[in-house]
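During the reporting period, our protein records have gained a structure token line. A sample record is set out beneath this paragraph:
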Amino acid sequence: MLEFAEGAQVTLKGPAVLEVRFGPQGNVVEEFDAAPQTFLRVLAASLPAPEHELLATKDLVLWLSAGKRVQLGEAGRVAVWGDYLNQDNVDDDSAWQVNPEFRPSLVPDAIGGLPAVRFAGESYMITTPFSTTDNATIVSVFQFQPQTIDEGKSGELINFNGPPNLVIERWWEGHLKASMFAGWTAEDGITEGCHIRGNPIPEHHPVVAAFIYNHAENRSSLYVNGELIGEDKADQPAALLSPKVIGKNHLRGPNTDFFTGDIAEALVFNRSLDRNEIQDLSKHFLQTYGITNDSPAIPIAGLVP
């Protein structure tokens, strides 16, 4: 039985799984069999993570892990990527894609024999809205795949959907870029809180990247596989309540800046992790995904002007 705000009640007599079309007065116009695979379901609560699974969990506000809490919809594509709750990360900010056309796929053995969510050039997900702060850290395990559209263009792995907007992206010709977009005006053009860009990362070579934005100390940093790639200022406030976007720049229209690659892990912290914490997290994920120090992905040190 359904009850409407005005007090009207409607009893449904169809099958257990059905779709209903309502009229303007809340009356049932039509009942018909539903296609269960088209529905998004509330994910079961995640089991508590092992106490020492991550050494850094303080102020963790989002943890998307492809091996945990993934719901597949039509054609086996990812409809919901569940937030893996862990100690400080107690609010479920799962990522969603309600349109089957734009859903990524799940590859069970993408990186080191473990699952990753594959964004194939025209797919993305959006999280439940949550707050991020002036000091923040993004950590991700991913690998680039060959681009299928807009060859050579950028594609955003994760962005905070601002401004203010923290971004990790695949920049032109495979460069890894971390930046903070503070806004734009006709008088001043684009204002950036930081801009760090390293040398290209080869396709099919997984990395662990960490972007630290420390507004309190006016410093931002980009790490790859635990190694510092570059630093910049962090002179713009970054606090924001917003749904975060995985796999695309949501601000630039429906057909641009799609990420092409596999994402195994994406974490957001509401603080600036220190160097030791970044190195510990990187070591954990390097070991988990079998990314070794002789990988071609390691020697990317150096900034590109």
Notes: The chain is about 5% helix and 40% strand. The two ends are 63 Å apart (CA to CA).
